[in-house]
Amino acid sequence: MELLREYARQNSESAFAELVSRRIGLVYSAALRQVRDPDQAAEITQAVFILLAQKAGEISDKTILTGWLFKTTRFTALAQMRNMARRRRREQEFHMHTETEQPAPDELWEQVSPLLDEALGALGETDRQALLLRYFEDKNLTDVGRQLGMSEDTARKRVGRALDKLHRYFSKRGVRSTGAILATLVTANSIQAAPAPLAASIAAVATAKGAAAGSSSLALIKGALKLMAWTKAKTTIVVGIIALVAATSTTVVVVKSRAPQPVPGNRTDGLSPTMETMTADIQSDGSVRFEATVEEVNRTSKTVNTDRINDSDTIIDQLTDESGNAMQFTQTTGSRISYLITLNKPVPPGGKVSYKAAGRANGMIKSDAGVCRIGYNEYPGNDFDMRRITLWRLPVGATLLEKNPAALIASTNGDQVELRIDRVIPPQGQLEISFSYKPPTP
């Protein structure tokens, strides 16, 4: 991060060039595994470092750069593959991928390589960071622990568990191996040398913030930014969970749903959330009513007059500012809902705004054999800390069966169970929450 900070503070092209030379192998190799074409991989690599140069001043010191580069490469490669798919449809012909000129790789690596980035992307943030640091950057466990803010022993356990998850992922897809073999294989093959002239050309284009980039690269950057914004909008990504409730011998089936968010979706007009507080009341019919307060800060250099929410899961009925005055908003519907909010007061650079939202969500709580369950993963995707306070209220008379994590505190208010959690989610961090209950007897 020192080189990135030096570039951000002093606009040092030499610092950025050194950063590119150190990290280009990681980015190029990840891109090549996904698109399987050296020319496209080079273009993706250039786009990633242009994005890094553009966002250098916004990336927090707490961010682990390896993880940021990995995720940005994933977004950019996905944008490239979507562009190619659209091009193939327009031209109505198949695109032939150019093969990399290199010795025939190990047969097992041939099976692992196309799935590796998808497998890493399916892991939780901390698990992914641990594997990237340990096997992609060849860090020892002491360094892994230091960068993740944990002890060496905890880092060893974290890496081991993450490797087991990776092994299970590949096993389900017919790749026969062991965790130890996967570790050796990834260490030996994950980083490939990028073409010799690529680093110098990328450093030159990136430090100019993409001004000299070609139209295809600019389109790729735009597509990657759109995907990054869309992912940031998915404040919660619900995971399916299989559980056995031993007391009742009831099997809870796999369910997939989305949890409501106070202001679900992506803020695209320059405001970044710093704190979100939500109270969610589960109704007897499984629907959810929510009230939430959102606190945001303007981290841009321009005054902001609107807030935009894209790809919403919930229906917002009312918005009010911190003084209780109604706020105007327009809603558009498609496969999902989007909102354009007019702020009652403009927010200058560095300024803050707070407003309240109220609404509802349907189809979130899934029920099977008399057991109701919800599970989700709060992933703001921010480059800054965000405090998240959530209070779930079960239906009156409902019985709590299980909850996770331990920080999700259960209490009773009369005949009603309440679940509360108050956590600061770090940059690019996440918070997994799940619980189940038996509804009250009619």
Structural commentary:
The chain is 39% helix and 28% strand. The N and C termini lie far apart (59 Å). It has 442 residues and is α+β, with helices and mostly antiparallel strands. It has 2 domains: 2-232, no CATH class; 236-438, tricorn interacting facor f3 domain (Immunoglobulin-like, Sandwich), CATH 2.60.40. A hairpin with a 2-residue loop joins strand 16 and strand 17. The protein has a 7-stranded mixed sheet with strand order 8-11-6-5-14-17-16, with no helix packed on it. Strands 1, 12, 13, 15 and 18 form a 5-stranded antiparallel sheet that branches. Strands 4-7-10-9 form a 4-stranded antiparallel sheet.
TL;DR?
The protein has 442 residues and is of the alpha+beta class. The protein has helices at residues 2-10, 13-35, 38-54, 65-91, 107-122, 125-136, 141-148, 152-172, 179-189, 198-207, 215-233; strands spanning 236-237, 243-245, 250-252, 266-267, 271-282, 288-298, 304-312, 315-321, 328-333, 337-347, 352-361, 366-368, 371-378, 386-393, 399-404, 409-413, 416-425, 431-438.
Task: Tell me the major beta sheet.
Answer: 7 strands, mixed
Estimated helix fraction:
25-40%
Main-sheet strand order equals 8-11-6-5-14-17-16
Q: What is the domain tally?
A: 2
Shape: globular
Low-confidence stretches: 92-105, 230-268
Q: What is the N-to-C order of secondary-structure elements (H for helix, E for strand)? A: HHHHHHHHHHHEEEEEEEEEEEEEEEEEE
Estimated structural class: alpha+beta
Q: Total strand count, please?
A: 18
**How far from one another are the termini?**
59 Å
- Beta-strand share of residues: 25-35%
- The radius of gyration is 23 Å
What's the overall average pLDDT, rounded? Answer: 76
